[in-house]
Amino acid sequence: MPTTNWLFYINFAVFSVFLTLFITELMGAILLLVAYERSKHRVLEHVVPIWEVTGTFAVFWVVTADFAYPSMLIPVATLLAGYIVVFLILLVARNASISFAEFIVKRTWLDEKKLYQTYAASTLLLGGVVVLILSAIVSGAGVDLATLSFSFVGWLTNPGSVPYLLGVLVIGVGLAPVFYGIGELRRWSLPLTVVGVAIEASALYLYASSFLSDLFLVPAVLTILPAVLYQSSRTAPIVTNKIVFGVVSCLIIFSQSYLVYPTAFHGGITVDAVTTTGPMVNAFLLLSAVGIVLVGLLMALYLAVVTRSGRLKAGGTPPAQPQESAT
Amino acid sequence: MSFPIVNFDRFLFAFTIASHILLVSVSIGLAILISVVEFLSARTSDKYYRALARRLIRPFVISFGVGTASGIVMAIELVNLFPGFMTLVSKTGVIAIFYVEVFAFFVETVLLVVYAYYADSFRGKYTRWALTLPIVVGTVLSAVLITMVNAWMNTPNGFNTAAFVATGVVSGVNPWAPFLTVSTGYEVLQVVTAVPLTGMMLIGGYFAYRYLVAPGTEERTLFLKGLRITVVASVVLVALSVLAGVLEIEGLYQYQPLKYAAIELNPTPGTNLPITVFGSLSGTSIVGGFQVPGLQGMITHHVMLPGLSQYPSSEWPPLLIHTTFDIMVLGGVLLGLFLFAYVALWAAHRRPFDNKFLAYGFVGFSFLTALVMEFGWATDEIGRQPWIVYNVMTVNQAANYSTALIVPGIVIVVFYLLLVPLTFYFMVRVFNGRPLDLDLKGPPVGNDANY
Fold this sequence. Notes:
The complex is a heterodimer of chains A (327) and B (451). Chain A has 327 residues and is mostly helical. Chain A has one domain (6-276). Chain A has twelve helices and four strands. Chain A has helices at residues 6-34, 36-68, 73-103, 112-139, 152-157, 161-180, 186-207, 217-229, 236-240, 242-254, 271-274, 279-314, and strands spanning 143-144, 149-150, 263-264, 269-270. Chain B has two domains: 1-183 and 401-434, no CATH class; 195-255 and 257-383, no CATH class. In chain B, strands 1-4 form a two-stranded antiparallel ribbon. In chain B, a hairpin with a 3-residue loop joins β5 (387-389) and β6. In chain B, α2 runs antiparallel to α14 and α5 packs across α7 (184-213).
């Protein structure tokens, strides 16, 4: 009887939280680029305190992956070396531009808007690299495991790759108004999200028909649900609540674990075979248990402080509701 | 063909870490300084301390933001540039150190966010100061944990090293042993003193200069109060650094004798060896520099000290480390003397803060401290060559030979050459970004995100 690979599920759960936080930033980045003045208040009040936490979850995920899959490090480093370095450059650019933008006061050749839009552009490009790497890990597109080489042209010419990237982008545009409560863009939210999910489904089918199993229904429904609830002013506050949205987003991502487990790279690598064994497993589980409790407490503290601060600022009024269209 | 790529891997990582430790030293210095200033502000209700804390948090967020990104770059670069090393790390308890470091990082990040953006919503007298404590703990703990990894690289344990060297298979793993190797204690002490010292001196150098050129009385008062704290902290840290250095030397000749012999440029072993200052090795003789007869033996209580002749020359690290070590020691001695003179003048009520030459001297010594730290790190790392894990794995065995790294690697170097000065420029700019009057009053902050 097969046993549960807890290391995989812990690593994937951490990945789900990281990706959720990163997606909320990506959605904000889209808004900052296309509608800076209208969206900056809503976007920045979320992004400015949280972007450091996103980075920390990225490290959390990388270290749990190193811990869980030591024998995968050489293949991954060899396959994706160049793209990982590009990822790193964009990451530093993102952190530098947003931390500079936060405190810039004087309006000179480099002002707050330019810096925030630099942050947004780097975050979007970073998102592109992340999607490229993830889609390659899921589908094996452009990957030759025998020679440990990766071809960008091979990835791009795979019929699933461009739709995969496009689907993520369209879903991001569709759900951004929900997460940030931008009422003016409400009517676009549902159609864009549905189209995005449809594109994503076709991308997975084009990668491999087996990817589009019944299991895909879970993330598909969960992705469309927030856009549906956002259409009614009675249910909108539920999904614009950032914790609710975050939990749903984590579930959406976690429910796609079937794409990389039990095999990743479209059957190229069996995850159980590359997972660490022996005393390292117990060390991983023990540290994870302690660490997850600590991180949970820290996040609870953070949310309590943010909520308290918001209430103090609003003089005891309830949290903000989504903005209605001005037109 | 493969050799230049290994050297490129070496260069890229060395360049990244050299940049990173500069940012981190300022981050750690700022974290400690902010905590001290918040304590003094709460205790004395002095408006200048309050304003100083509010001003310091802004550059701290920038140094933290860029520093963490740079830390992530290093963590991922280790996988990317030296996958063989990280595979060994991930199969042994060293990865557990990295894992604990993530949690230290979380403490630091979340509490920094709470302190930087929401501290004004708390009303307790000492609450702001209390919020800084976990930030200091998280920041220092991050440095301690990464030094534990470095200590393990110098004196590996926690698995059967002999079996690994013979077969390449990791066995006999004890996941907790790497947290405490024979060199962990003295390496950690060295880092937790030298790195904050650099940060304090760099910040102090800036304060000394600004105190001298500031136009108004209020600004001068602000910078003087900051400068006094950094001077006291630097004196304490430089004294602890000397102690750490002595302990490290003792550890080196016991546990890394070849590195010790190369650092001291000892051609042969002995109990009454001289200290060789600069100079180089030609055959079995020292050329250039000068020697102080018997001093090395006296410092080490005449124990049998190792010499290079005990090891095949193919295993020697580059003897350049003798020069980098001497520069580090010389710089450290000069810094100690400068700080001693500065404090002596202060104690004698001679107001060293107002002396133009001492102010510019402080600026100069702040850069020298950074140089000393970089040379100290270079001595440690180059001194372990050709090994990445001492006597277990060479850099050549660990490296990534993919040529795909070269172009983006060069872009990283160019990017950092722009980023590091730009970061320091912005830190200074945001520190001075608001009129001092506003910081002396203190604004409320808040957030109405729907959580």
